Task: inverse folding
């Protein structure tokens, strides 16, 4: 199931620009499905001798995603772990385009691992990078998409 979701997410990014509301909604639903699939994905096992997957061209990906989603960009966020009894949270700035590029990068690497290493290594890497990288991008982006989709309805 995870392999198919990765393919579905990456296929969304291959659409012709600009995206319409339907594509934005498909993106939101795919992010939901990825979140759910992560909760059911086996932990896997890291293949220590496996080669590293190729890197995604972040510049080209960013340019393409900017054209696809021209209405997305910077948005405010706060650290959810801020101790409100000690301080008011500082408002940070996130970038929805960067969120999508980073998710795409980590999922492209996972897709490569499924094809070129094995499922256990791909699962291990998905879990690891979900915890330390693409999971936060996904959750921040999903919150923004929720707000945007409800603003338009």
Result:
């Amino acid at each position: 199931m995870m392999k198919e979701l990765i393919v579905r997410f990456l296929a969304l990014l291959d659409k012709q620009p600009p995206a319409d509301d339907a594509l934005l909604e498909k993106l939101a639903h795919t992010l939901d499905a990825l979140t759910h699939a992560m909760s059911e994905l086996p932990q896997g096992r890291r293949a220590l001798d496996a080669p590293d997957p190729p890197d995604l061209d972040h510049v080209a990906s960013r340019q393409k995603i900017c054209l696809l989603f021209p209405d997305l960009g910077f948005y405010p966020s706060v650290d959810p772990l801020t101790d409100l009894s000690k301080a008011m949270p500082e408002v940070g700035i996130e970038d929805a385009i960067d969120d999508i590029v980073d998710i795409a990068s980590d999922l492209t690497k996972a897709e490569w691992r499924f094809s070129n290493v094995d499922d256990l290594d791909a699962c291990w890497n998905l879990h690891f990078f979900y915890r330390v990288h693409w999971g936060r991008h996904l959750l921040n982006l999903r919150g923004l998409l929720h707000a945007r989709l409800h603003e338009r309805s």
Remarks:
- The longest strand covers residues 74-78.
